[in-house]
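Now for one record:
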Amino acid sequence: MLLARGVNVPVAVVGGLLAGLIAGFLNGLMITKGRLPPFIATMGSLLMARGLCYGLTGGWPVRDLPQAFRNLGQYDIPIAEVGVPLPLIFMLAFGALASAFLARTIWGYRIYALGGNETATALSGINTDRVKIMVYSLSGFLAAVGGVVMTARLGVAAPTAADGYELDVIAAAVVGGTSVTGGEGTILGVLIGAAIMQVLRNGLVLMGVSAYWLQAVQGLVIVVAIMLDQLRKRRR
């Protein structure tokens, strides 16, 4: 919307990233201060944000985005005579930063501890509310980064874009070894899980499987991955 109104590209991108950061921060406040269940707060925030997009656009896609903005998702960097898409560079860079943050900083250790046992983490003197707010704020910011890159890649800002992608994210995380009960998982595992899900989807399409069955397969993969995770924990 900012780009459609003539705002320059850097300001529009920063505005979008700040919007995601603020949305994540408010979501964290609702969970920590308002004591809302995380699922309810997250789904409510999702519906409010999606409704805001529909309201601002009237349900119509925003076209004629500046080329400088579209380059964020469509530009290929020539490396060793091979064009490497800029979104791939973004993914690897943010993946490396997030992995280092979780594995090499005190806040990363606190996140794992909070996911593993919130009560024990609180009793150890860690401010769990502060950690939760930080996590949700970072989640909103990174979601905004993904939204900016995807919009630039498509070349059009559609209010229906990424509809249902929350299931793709859950599937990638679970298949990549992230525990739904918290406290376990790596960024590398999530990236591998996302690659596996995309290969599975493309493989089914190449095999001639109807697109209507793709969600059923995706749901089956999520259920099986969670069952295997629970069986592994029971054996411990």
Notes: The chain has two domains: 1-161, 164-236.
